[in-house]
């Protein structure tokens, strides 16, 4: 179903999670379908129902007047035709297990979380396939900063599902005049783009925190994209996916925006603050810190050279100083920019060969 089609197709939507991004997606869906958001916090639920705002995370933005909120998890899940998982990766599996007790067997489930499960290194749709088998699962992702969307600023996103025709049906549920949603078949690539980019947002933020300029940040983002694409394709994603909205688009937005939680952590690191203190002072999750550990393990396992990700890991998990990390990067080996393409060049008899 195309997003612009004239249709009476209506479903009931439930979004699990009262954070900034879950609330924003619920607001978008409420333009097109009856939508309920579930949150643990009773004050948040009351604020949404009575005043059309999320007073905890988004106090300056008015939500769609038809959006409703509840603390009744079982009812919200039992009555939905589309379930959207807006909880952090740390709570994802436990929430999916709770969902499994109530959800109807045919209901599609869409993940908003951008990260990996610690320990298993699984993507969120892999967790859904384990805990909620035999149903369509997918991901909504892209360069999507919550406050900009709620302010009415335009952007794009992709909806990727294990069953592509379901993505086509759901396209119209998420699309609004300012939120343009494209369909995608590559669930793996779309999900990896959103998970991997958080690592490089930490690095970009550190460069900004150290006031090292736009050249340095642009170079880091570009080389970070190369690392992201190389590992992403090793893990089953498609290169064009990772060069699109789910990869490059999300990477750029997360690396350059002051709204990005991961970029914020990086800026604080660049200014000399210890990682434990930064995380202690935050009221929302920065997935890049945990992702750095997972990415380091995946890179080692698959033999992918990822020097930027390795140094982010060293700073976040081994206590290395950002100065040390940058010096290590700048003194590291430098090969052909295109990596494997370098092997395709033939050598002449020139003394420069």
Give a description of the structure.
There is one protein chain. The protein has an 8-stranded mixed sheet, sandwiched between helices. The N and C termini lie far apart (57 Å). The protein folds into 2 domains: 13-185, 3-Layer(aba) Sandwich (Rossmann fold); 193-332, N-(1-d-carboxylethyl)-l-norvaline Dehydrogenase, domain 2 (Orthogonal Bundle), CATH 1.10.1040. It is an alpha/beta fold and 353 residues long. It is built from 16 helices and 8 strands. The protein is globular.
How many structural units, i.e. domains?
A: 2
Instruction: Compute the average pLDDT.
Output: 91
> DSSP strand (E) fraction?
5-15%
Structural class: alpha/beta
What is the CA-based Rg, rounded? 21 Å
Q: Remind me, CATH topology of the largest domain?
A: Rossmann fold
Uncertain spans, ≥5 residues at pLDDT below 50?
1-8, 340-348
How many angstroms separate the termini?
57 Å
Question: Architecture of the largest domain in CATH?
Answer: 3-Layer(aba) Sandwich
- Could you give me the name of the CATH homologous superfamily of the largest domain? NAD(P)-binding Rossmann-like Domain
- Can you list the strand order of the major beta sheet? 3-2-1-4-5-6-7-8
Order of helices and strands: EHEHEHEHEHEHEHEHHHHHHHHH
The major β-sheet equals: 8 strands, mixed
